[in-house]
Design a protein that fits this description.
three-stranded mixed beta sheet
């Protein structure tokens, strides 16, 4: 941990501040919660416009030459625009302001001129409605001028910086509307760490599967894509570290506006936009039957899945392990483990090269649920199939919407020999630096040096380190055992017991003289037989004889109270071999539950140890192992 402060990328911050300043134009006409409906689609529009501007004349020439023919323009024009999309409108964002009187119609014409894969982005924002409202309030010209003035071409604003701009804008809009910013994106330094871990290659891996192989093509899938930040960073990482390899990016997102941003990002990258699916991953898997080389996700944690419960339960009941949720279902209050199971199902089979997964989870999947619960069964499945490769404990206060502890799980269904049957635990809780200014709950971030340190701990598997520990998968399993010990009581006329016994409520009606007589008689008896006894019947007879000798008569309830005054005349013996004599009927045997390590439990169940097992563990109950 250190108090050194760092800041985000200056260019991205300045552009983000400029774009946010446009909100001042909207103040009064729009609610703060609605600023994003204008600023986000216009930002995307300006980004796309900047990309197409250099080839705009050539695209128009080709379009005019072929528009009356049967040529497949959707395939021809992208080669001319040098992008995965094109625009056949006569306008650009810069030329639109030349005709203020027809600005609304011209702007809508410009948006309609985009290829179909881009028009869908603006449909998600209901852009035509927003343009009409801006025009009605005499704001359209002012807003358009502001956006036309900012240069968002990738040569000036990289994809990484653009992602940071979107994060800054979404965070501010979420704060304004009391929404959860963390539902839309993950802090970029956290994404970089996950991506770096995911693409780390180990020395004893099969060289044929390495990304260093020229022409290597791999797929990366995010079932909770948000604005596409994780996919974008993964693509950037591979371009930087494995220039001879390429990634195919795929994802699914439920939030329409986040989906639009993710889709725009894929269009800009030249990816197939059909690989970004809109919809609920749990109820409508957009990639049924498909598997991928890499999976990456920051699913919502601590969020209930009640509205998806009927569909998920049906898939679980009908398809079992042939479906996604065969190992078990977690409690309805937290569905993050459902996304873990979904990603496990999406891992490319070992016979086809295997798959790896990096997923961010909170502490609940580690500990919630007793042995035999849905959570426990999921953990058991992951461990017994040797899928869990590493867990990295993250610092607190690094996410925008929560300060709780989080963990990165790395899963691999084709581990190299050195890691098979093992799990690596890395403590990264002290790897953070203080931010200059807090952003919601985010007060810390992870520096590039700290990311390298954590990745180094993961990659240098065999080098001893205080923050990195290696365990066998069996070390995480245990069996829950119910231990029942018989009630062990004793009785004695000891001074401290007598002093408490003569004050019980049942003796409240005794006169002071009778109370004194009772105490004196018990003390005298204690002087004769001070040793405790576990024989309840014999002790009762002794008390009755003592009262008779003292000429003192007690009612049956009073006598019972003197004998049974727990824990005065009755004591649990510390240890002992069992219960000797009778015990009070209202007290049962002592019962508690113990966790026997999986290996120790198996040893205790060997036939030669059976007598010792009975004595030590009592009556075992069949339980599931859990992590």
């Amino acid at each position: 941990m250190t108090d050194t402060t760092i800041d985000t990328t200056a260019g991205a911050k300045n552009n983000g501040a400029f774009l946010w300043s446009i909100a001042n134009l909207l103040r009064g006409t729009y609610k703060q919660a609605d600023y994003g409906k204008i600023i986000l689609p216009f930002t995307i529009l300006r980004r796309l416009d900047a990309l197409l501007e250099p080839t705009k004349p050539q695209v128009l020439d080709k379009f005019n030459a072929l528009k009356d023919s049967n040529a497949a323009l959707d395939y021809i024009l992208p080669t001319v625009s040098e992008q995965a999309f094109f625009n056949t409108s006569l306008y650009t964002l810069g030329t639109l302001s030349g005709d203020p009187a027809n600005l609304k119609a011209n702007l809508l014409n410009y948006v309609d001129g985009f290829s179909a894969n881009v028009r869908d982005i603006f449909d998600r924002y209901k852009f035509a409605e927003q343009v009409s409202y801006l025009d009605e309030n005499d704001l359209l010209f002012l807003v358009l001028q502001r956006f036309a003035a900012v240069d968002l071409h990738p040569d000036r604003v990289s994809n990484t910086e653009m992602g940071l701009i979107f994060e800054e804008l979404i965070r501010k809009f979420a704060e304004s509307s009391n929404e959860t910013a963390g539902e839309h994106f993950t802090p970029r330094e956290v994404v970089r760490l996950i991506v770096s871990l995911l693409f780390t290659e180990h020395p004893d891996e099969d060289p044929a599967t390495s990304l260093t192989v020229p022409g290597a093509v791999r797929t990366v899938y995010d079932p909770t894509a948000g604005t596409g930040g994780m996919l974008s960073v993964a693509d950037d990482y591979v371009r930087d570290h494995y220039p001879n390899a390429s990634l195919t990016l795929l994802g699914q997102e439920l939030n329409a506006e986040s989906f639009a941003i993710a889709k725009a990002d894929m269009v800009i990258k030249g990816q197939n936009v059909e690989n970004i699916i809109w919809g609920d991953t749990l109820t409508n898997d957009g990639f049924v039957g498909k598997t991928f080389d890499y999976g990456i996700s920051n699913p919502p944690f601590g969020v209930e899945w009640k509205k998806q419960q009927e569909f998920v339960q049906k898939e679980y009941d009908l398809h079992g392990f042939d479906g996604r949720f065969g190992p078990g279902l977690p409690r309805v209050s937290d569905g993050s483990l459902l996304f873990l199971l979904h990603l496990v199902k999406k891992m490319r089979p070992k016979s086809q090269g295997g798959g790896r997964v990096g997923i961010v989870l909170n502490g609940s999947p580690l500990f919630t649920g007793g042995a035999g619960s849905g959570e426990s069964n999921i953990r058991k499945y992951v461990l017994e199939n040797d899928l869990l490769d590493a867990i990295i404990a993250m610092p607190t206060d690094i996410f925008y919407n929560t300060g709780i502890a989080t963990y990165i799980w790395i899963l691999d269904n084709d581990k190299p020999a050195s890691r098979q049957g093992r799990v690596q635990l890395i403590d990264g809780t002290d790897q953070w630096v203080k931010m200059r200014k807090s952003l919601g709950s985010k007060r810390r971030e992870i520096s590039a040096e700290q990311i390298s340190h954590l990745v180094g701990l993961y990659g240098n598997y065999d080098e001893p380190a205080e923050a990195s520990k290696i365990f066998n998968t069996a070390d995480f399993g245990y069996t829950t055992i119910t231990v029942e010990r018989p009630l062990q009581l004793n009785w004695a006329c000891a001074t401290e017991r007598i002093d408490s016994a003569v004050t019980v409520k049942a003796l409240a009606k005794l006169t002071d003289a009778n109370r004194t007589t009772l105490r004196t008689a018990l003390l005298a008896q204690g002087a004769v037989s001070a040793e405790p006894t576990s024989a309840a019947t014999a002790f009762t007879k002794l008390i009755k004889k003592t009262l008779t000798d003292a000429a003192l008569t007690l009612t049956a309830p009073q006598l019972k109270a003197v004998i049974a005054a727990h824990p005065i005349l009755r004591r649990h013996r510390a240890g002992g071999d069992g219960c000797q004599g009778q015990t009070s009927g209202r007290h049962g045997p002592a019962r508690h539950r113990e966790r026997a390590p999986q290996r120790e439990h198996r040893r205790l169940h060997r036939p030669r140890d059976r007598p010792a097992r009975r004595q030590l563990l009592g009556r075992p109950q069949q339980r599931q192992n859990r992590l």
